Recover the amino acids of this structure.
């Protein structure tokens, strides 16, 4: 009995070795033995013990191994089915990607058709007494900074819009206007920033911010801080939470020529300058620190805008340069070419389009769903530079040095 049990244990170990170590695949023979094929193609044969099946502690090993084999067969069948399903899904995804590509191409064609057939001309043209340099829209009112030293206020609830008021006080061109918390801030070639209270009608002059020593060309608000870009080569930061009179909290230096425009992405500010660079500023530091300098290679960085983690820079050489703004310093991605002269203004809608105003007297309409973006259409009809752009409620507003604001319906696709 002891010898018989020992023999069965030895046989059981041999069988397990064949199945696990050698990964043999085979069948049990009628007499309880096992015949299989090893990985190297050799035949494996385990003789049955005397008395037939191996039973250890009441367990029929042959039956257990056959059940294990059946489970493996079922698992292999499931794996094969899943593999076939995955292949089918891959084929479906490939087909879907192709359909999406075709749909985008079709949409681009429709957009081009829309602009060439139905939106070739503006729906409204509004006149001012001099160049329209700056645009801001708030609460159905359009604010226009003009070369006549005034700020024109238009009622957008009327179609066409009508003039409500002209705010006087500056003594030179008004380049920039921005609205924040019921205050209008205007920057001028008289080197000043004027503050207006929009809770009153007509808007009331509050005070003047005098700190720059050159034209105030651009204004922007981020996290309740007003930033002013000037032709004195500096950017001033004004904490709007301060009690009046406001004084600059920081003077950001580093540019060596006029500072044109400002843009923001998360806690970074980007400033474009006539010195041919875009500077990145870390706004989490006090004072904000310049953390990177991007070269635009030719001429100045005139227009700067951030959108969907990308930084767009309109340049003097008629190129729009695009960087990835999720990294510091931003990494260059591609250039957009379609204008003939300086790109002076940029704006975006919520349907995947970029609008670029240029000194070539046109507006470019770009499809941002393509990579790189493609030029969908060119809006013409200007007789001078396109200096300012704004998008609101499905309409594109443009300010030009030809003394007009033109309004287009934006592309519906």
């Amino acid at each position: 009995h002891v010898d018989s049990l020992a023999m069965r244990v030895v046989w059981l170990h041999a069988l397990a070795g064949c199945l696990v170590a050698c990964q043999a695949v085979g069948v049990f023979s009628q007499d309880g033995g096992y015949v299989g094929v090893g990985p190297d193609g050799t035949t494996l044969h385990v003789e049955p013990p005397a008395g037939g099946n191996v039973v250890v502690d009441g367990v029929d090993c042959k039956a257990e191994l056959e059940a294990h084999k059946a489970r493996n067969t079922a698992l292999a069948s499931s794996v094969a089915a899943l593999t076939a399903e995955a292949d089918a899904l891959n084929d479906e995804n490939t087909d879907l990607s192709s359909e999406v590509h075709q749909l985008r191409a079709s949409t681009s064609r429709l957009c081009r058709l829309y602009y060439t057939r139905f939106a070739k001309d503006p729906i409204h043209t509004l006149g001012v007494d001099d160049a329209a340099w700056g645009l801001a829209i708030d609460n159905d009112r359009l604010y226009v900074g003009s070369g006549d030293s005034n700020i024109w206020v238009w009622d957008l609830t009327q179609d066409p819009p009508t003039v409500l008021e002209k705010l006087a006080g500056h003594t030179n061109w008004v380049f920039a206007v921005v609205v924040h918390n019921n205050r209008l801030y205007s920057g001028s070639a008289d080197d000043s920033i004027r503050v207006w209270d929009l809770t009153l009608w007509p808007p009331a002059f509050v005070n003047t911010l005098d700190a720059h020593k050159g034209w105030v060309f651009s204004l922007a608000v981020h996290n309740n801080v007003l930033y002013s870009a000037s032709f004195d080569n500096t950017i001033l930061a004004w904490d709007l939470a301060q009690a009046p009179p406001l004084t600059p909290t920081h003077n950001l230096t580093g540019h060596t020529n006029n500072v044109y425009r400002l843009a923001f992405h998360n806690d970074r500010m980007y400033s474009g300058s006539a010195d041919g660079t875009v500077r990145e500023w870390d706004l989490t530091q006090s004072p904000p620190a310049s953390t990177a300098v991007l070269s635009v290679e030719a001429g100045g960085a005139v227009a700067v805008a951030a959108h969907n983690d990308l930084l767009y820079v309109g340049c003097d050489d008629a190129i729009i340069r695009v960087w990835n703004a999720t990294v510091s310093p931003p990494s260059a991605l591609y250039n957009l070419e379609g204008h003939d002269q300086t790109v002076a203004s940029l704006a975006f809608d919520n349907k995947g389009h970029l609008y670029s105003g240029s000194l070539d007297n046109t507006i470019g309409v770009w499809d941002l769903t393509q990579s790189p973006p493609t030029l969908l259409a060119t809006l013409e009809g200007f007789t001078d530079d396109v200096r300012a752009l704004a998008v609101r409620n499905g309409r594109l507003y443009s300010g030009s040095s030809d003394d007009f604001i033109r309004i287009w319906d934006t592309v519906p696709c």
